[in-house]
Amino acid sequence: MTTAAALRPEARRRGAAVSRWLLPMAPAVLLLGLFVAGPILWSGYVSFTNAALTGSAATDPEFVGLENFRRLFADPALWRSAWVTVVFTVGSAVIGQNGLGLLIAVLTRHRNRLLRNTVGIAVVSAWVLPELVAAFALYAFLNPEGTLNALLGAVGLNEQDWLYSAPLLAVILGNVWRGTAFSMLVYQAALSEVPTELAEAAEVDGAGALRRFWHVTLPIIRRSVLTNLMLVTLQTLGVFTLIYVLTAGGPGDATQTLPLLMYDEAFELDEIGYGATISLVLLAVGALFAVVYARTLREEV
Predict the structure, then answer these.
(1) CA distance 84 to 100
(2) Is the pLDDT of residue 5 over 80?
(3) Contact 94, 79 (CB under 8 A)
(4) Is the CB of residue 84 less than 8 Å from the CB of residue 64?
């Protein structure tokens, strides 16, 4: 009895400590459950039904089991869209935004403040624009009567319809233009933490700029590189508005990524259940990228 009585105050203290941690987190957990977990669970349920926007399936959808999944994985459109999504993501996020952002951050690191601010404003201005506004600005630049063809015609070069002749390249470059600022800011912050003494010591030892960057700077900012890659990759997987405004997935299906395929099936063809199935595939692709990056980051600790 004495031992039990002695343990009660300790148990009450532990309970109070747990409550102090849990109560402030409760609103955040509730919101995450409502606006994140809720839609995901609803999409998972709908993907097993024939839910539609119109007709009897809109009010009383029937359970169809794995039929949507069998249909999806037998559909050539899925594999074409998956390939376009991979090319778009690697080209505009992994290589484009990540590489260009790192390059700008490195080249402007030791430059004067005026040059750094000028370059920073020019790059960030595209990032702060609403996505719809940025997409229309790109369309005005790339369409046959747009700014790019006007500049090419002024110097005697051939004009063309860039959104028809090179649509995937156009949307990749457009996404690079809009999203590079985030990577640049991440790398500017990371480079500011690199001790200058290490680079100076390497320079004294005869290492050139490229070798100093590869063997001194890059290992120090490795975690920032991996974190930035994860963030820009996941963001790029879900890009919709930019591509939809520029090409709407065309010509044909040349720029139809998984988000556009999902939209077409769910809202253009009214097959909500089938569209939800595509959304789960996209979610799985994003989760795969996240797991790979997260494991790599954990190994760096």
Answers:
(1) 21
(2) no
(3) no
(4) no
Residue 27 has a pLDDT of: 81
pLDDT at 112 over 90: no
pLDDT of residue 15: 57
Q: Which residues of 65-99 are buried (b: 16+ CB within 10 A; e: fewer)?
A: eeebbeebeeeeebeebbebbeebbebbbeebbbe
Q: How far apart are the first and last CA of the chain?
A: 47
Alpha-carbon distances of 71 from 12, 48, 130, 244, rounded to whole Å: 56, 12, 36, 25
- With beta carbons less than 8 A apart as the criterion, state whether 81 and 257 touch: yes
The rounded distance, in Å, linking the Cα atoms of 259 and 278 is 8
Lookup result for tokens 């760096």: 300
Instruction: Quote the strand ranges of 56-118, DSSP E.
Output: none
Torsion of CA 224, 227, 228, 234, to 10 degrees: 180
Distances (CA, A) of 179 to 67, 129, 228, 232: 38, 10, 12, 8
Confidence band of 176 (pLDDT split at 50, 70, 90): very high
